[in-house]
Write a structure and sequence with these properties.
2 helices, alpha+beta, Tetrahydropterin Synthase, Chain A, 126 residues, 4 strands, elongated
Length: 126
């Protein structure tokens, strides 16, 4: 299996209003390191999994509307707990839409919320 991984970061604010989250129920900020890992059993006619420039551009475009935002105020997240796992799945779905016809394979999104904790989501892109 071949893979290409790119990295970006994003700063957001949000709250997680459920008792399970303790003090994170309150408004707080987070800086996520976002890894996008593209996997394919084959390379294309150019011997690449995906063009790194394209992958980087799409990831930046997907993250831009979230950057420096209070996620609690964004309509697409109303009624959702914006956990790290949830955000990884959201970013994956937005990337998959943007990459239709440009990449076919597995995409894994990993969000690092600290130096000791990560969460992610992976699935097919076609």
């Amino acid at each position: 299996m071949y893979n290409v991984r790119i990295r970006e970061h994003i700063m957001i604010a949000h709250s997680l209003p459920s008792k399970v989250f303790g003090p994170a129920q309150n408004m707080h900020g987070a800086t996520y390191v976002v890894d996008a890992d593209f996997q394919s059993p084959n390379v294309d006619e150019n011997n690449i999994v995906i063009d790194i420039g394209l992958a980087t551009e799409v990831l930046k475009e997907v993250l831009q509307p979230l950057a420096y935002q209070n996620l609690d105020e964004l309509p697409q997240f109303k009624g959702h707990l914006t956990t790290t796992e949830f955000l990884a799945q959201y970013i994956h779905s937005q990337m998959a839409k943007a990459l239709q016809g440009k990449f076919s394979g597995q995409l894994k999104i990993t969000l690092g919320e600290s130096h000791v904790a990560w969460a992610g989501f992976s699935g097919a892109v076609s």
